[in-house]
Amino acid sequence: MSATMSGSGSAPCRFAHYFVICGIDNETGLEPDALAALYQWLEADRQGRDPEAVAAGENFDQSPLKRTFKSKVLAHYPENIECNPFDQDAVNMLCMPKGLSFRTQRDSRTPQFHSFLITREDGSRTYGFVHTFYEEVTSPQICSAMQTLHQMHQAEHNASAHNCPSSSSSSSSSSSSSSMDSLASSLDEVESPSSTSSSQGGRRSCGCSGEGYDSVRDTLYVSKAMCLITPMPFMHACKRFLSQVHRAVISNQPPPLPLESYIYNILYEVPLPPPGRSLKFHGVYEPILCQRPGVGELPLADFPLSKAFQLLGVENLVQIFTCVLLEMQILLYSQDYQRLMVVAEGITTLLFPFQWQHVYVPILPASLLHFLDAPVPYLMGLQSKEGTDRSKLELPQEANLCFVDIDNHYIELPEDFPQFPNKTEFIQELSEVLLSFGLSPEGGNTSSEPAVSSQTSVLEKELKSTSLSELVDDRKNGNLGGEALDVLELLQGNPTLERLQALAKRTGVKVARLEALAAGQKAVGEEGVGGRSPVEEEELRNAKLNVQLREVFAARFATMFADYESFVIQNSPDLESWLTNREQMHNFDKASFLSDQPEPYLPFLSHFIETQMFATFIDNKIISQWEEKEPLLRVFDGRIEKARLYNVRAPSLRSSVYQKCTFLKESAQAIEQRLRKMDHTAIHPHLLDMKIGQGKYQQGFFPKLQADVLASGPTNNKWSNRTCSTQRRVDRHRQHNDHLVLDNDLKEKYMQEARSLGKNLRQPKLSDLSPAVIAQTNWKFVEGLLKECKMKTKRMLVEKMGREAVELGHGEVNITGLEENTLIASLCDLLERIWSHGLQVKQGKSALWSHLLHYQTREEKNEQLSESPVSNGQEKRKPESSVGLPALRLSVIQDMRHIQSMGEIKTDVGRARAWIRLSLEKKLLSQSLKQLLSNQALTKKLYKRYAFLRCEEEKEQFLFHLLSLNTVDYFCFTSVFTTIMIPYRAVIIPIKKLSNAMTTSNPWLCVSGELGDSGILQITKNVLEMKFDCQNLGKLTTVQLGHDNSGLLAKWLVDCVMVRNEITGHTYKFPCGKWLGKGVDDGSLERVLIGEFVVPCNDDDGGRGSKTPPLQRSPSQIRRISITSLTGRGNKPTTVQIQESIGEAVNNIIKHFHKPEKERGSLTVLLCGEGGLVWALEQFFHHGFRSARIFQKNVFVWDFYERTVAFLENADQIGDLQEKPEPLGLNSESFCRYVNAINSMPRNIGKDGKFQLLVCLGARDRLLPQWLPLLAECPVITRMYEENALLRDKLTVSSLIAVLETLHDFPITLESSLTKSVEL
Description:
About 45% of the residues lie in helices and about 10% in strands. A hairpin with a 5-residue loop joins β4 and β5. By secondary structure, the chain is α+β, with helices and mostly antiparallel strands.
């Protein structure tokens, strides 16, 4: 390799790899742009017209000056470089994305500058910098061809405009040319005022708007592009070099040396500056400076961030930046290619230390518009046509799209995406940096095209606010701005000339003026700071602003991920085994990382750590154990290290207090020092050994260069040999590493596979665009979507199954509610992308909802025809229990109607997401989508052949992956839509054998859940079922059931109450098993029943059964004993069982408080439910209790409490307790107060209910351990408890006190359904 390198001047170390000229090929003449034709073919196909007919016809209704023609690469030097092969098609397409464009002497012929980049397979990039100018056409053949085309256009136009002579052709051309107008579209409509002069008055009336071409009268010009292709983005240097070459071409004096000398010099004799150094090399007229950041600094980024911030404003830019971080689809839209590039490169630069991993095409050529159909995250730039507004732009998918209209300072964001942490303070800090450089944080259009009306005032403001030296060469717009001063005098307030004024601001118009300006610039240059020209000062200012803005962004990440290293899981012995098992392994402990973050950061971070860019960052961190650190990672780790030294605060104490960036000054100083003192000066351009007489200078024409001199570089160049040897050293080092570890290709292969789709499609192949290639690309997308679906569903299952999964060896333990929400949101996004792949015609912003609506319309039509209910072939769900609730009808349409009736959701995207959440919660997602896709006629009508949804095998696999989600319980609909009204159905099930199913009293019900309660609902007498609507109660916890004790049959033995959410189908059972009525059981007229979630168990539901334990019952408690049987005969629990159950009940409450707040579930269940604290203590108090029936009446524990209170109050009055120690006196006072308060409340909750309430209040107010000694020592105990009772065993009582005291650390709160109407 070294031999080839030295032969060509050591390509990897050279400043520029290629110099390219693109333009018109006089040999082949005028060819319509094939890409334009392909684009029209694709466009017709997309709109459902016959593409063949479109392709066949020539486009005569459009003026030939407006049409685009095929450009060619006329020359490129050198022929080829091994490390960066020349891709002719791609370079031609990106140098002239819209082909050749023609002008006449009447049109504006302002030179344009734009840049582009090509991303190679391995993710590395090559940059191109293009200077486009107009050159007079000298070939008579081309002039006559243009004349012929114009006459045909005239004839066509006269025919069509026969009836309306006044119509202007510009309107027809703008509508027909689709978006394939010429390169400088921003200047298309600008004509000099003379074009409306009287000489064309006659022609104007026939609709030609004076833009015709007459070969005798007019001079024809055609666009030509010069391009430098470089390995690094030295934008300013390349721009200055190219503009000096162009100046040499149009100058009336030939340049000091032939152009070959300058091009040879930049290709072969100018090296890349080494890291941390600056370099000076020579253009045609002036020296050019550039500098490269050092090893510990932020990587090179030469695109002016100030321009990006001015175009969009800080607020917008931060929002777009957030969308990029969350890997959404970002589409930039502008008339100006350079703006697209500046914004795209600006934003990706700010991602440090992360890197965009998906499709990245800052300038999307018109022929590649079908790429917007890509169902993957992308960052693309699309050139807008002048005058087209956003509404006309048909985009295949918008559910997850961030649309950025750069020219109009406007963005459209995806719905409900999380905000960047500390966004307000962050924007404030960025604004301060911009203000310190005299720029407005709001941004604003500083250049011509879009905001025509405000142009004058903007220009005036700029002239006032900016010093003269900065305006002489206004680098912000990359063109000479000094002329704006003169122009302003001429044009102020003249609306006709506002467009021209804008142009003049962009560039000097006449050659002579250019020369004068250059002379003037030298004069002003003497006054520049430290003998430097204003251009250099402006460049320095830009570089300093760039680096300071980037430092602010980098500092945010350094703060947010200060201790990311602690959470990286490194468990592989070597690189090879890590790469082999990469798919199966967890590399980052996400749950622990999130639990360590400040609350406000969580919504953003939980999404961000799921992205590909974060995964790649962590991969690089792990690989750095065995290999040299990736450069960005090295710099970032250095930053964190530095911050730790400065910051004594322990990194583990996370806080959301905003920390400003501390090294703004030093980073700017490093750049300033490099630019003020040059480290290297390249060899001056010199005469080459050339043939005399070739390439003669001719003003205004780019000469034909001598290829043989430019084909290869010098062989004896000092720096090339030096850099060559360093290169060899690096190569040797790398080979050595490779032998130690693993062949690099293999590593790349593994890494490619490990990082799912997107990488292989970083940039579409620009050269071959046959329909076959497009089909191949789509096939890659289909495969990628399936793989992504498999990974997402697996991740959701593993996270949700928690411990079960860990036992199976799947990594992380607990899933937080936040993480679950993030995973579900990303599933919604994936489904939207799948549904928008290969759409025939887009309708609405959500492709999935649009498909559902089509389906609904068809089904409802069928329903009307058959007059049968919409069960559309789906089986009805069986009743949840043998008695009670009627079956709930399952249907896609029914679920859609529920969603449509929710007024809170305003958009289609929102409705689609709600429907997905609902289907997931009902365990019907796979089934419903299968049903939706079973209507094949509809799918065919809506989707093209290559769409994912029409690939049968992949579709089946996809539905199968979704089916696996039925094995876990989700409450993702109930927990998100907390304010909606939900219909519930309740059924009361009596124990028929023993009870009057009929009752004469008036029953009532009150249902409570985690989010509220239904209020008291009266039930119609003897109708045991009711429906009611109320605001979402969340997961249900308790039911209060009672009656008013009226009539003769006022006793009621109830088995249980069943309540069902009619939207989600979730059913809860509230066991009772007791009487309600005076004089039976404990005389209760109302009971508080504790709910348990009923797991649906349909045999025919194909995997609908759930494997996770029911959420509403307390963990792993088997129902050992029923409280009602405690007083009767039956198996009584042993003392050991009783003590164990108390320990377990207390443990469960403690575990509850150790969970994150949002995931705790119901405390009521742990207190009063089966196996809860009340249940366990009731067993304790029943042990050895003398419950013999005295006068045939049951005795309850509450009777013991009442007698204890009577004794204590009596003793207190007599004064027996005076000698007792002080605390005991206080305890007896509180015990009596609580028991009396419960007894005197208006509710008839019975003696068991009163016992339950006392235990709950005692636990809440931390009094239980203080009451136990009172009860144990009260003389009443001997009459009511046997000798061996646990309550009479001092050791047991003191150990119980110790267990109950452990609850004192936790704030126990009680549901209002329990404590209602107790006055303490």
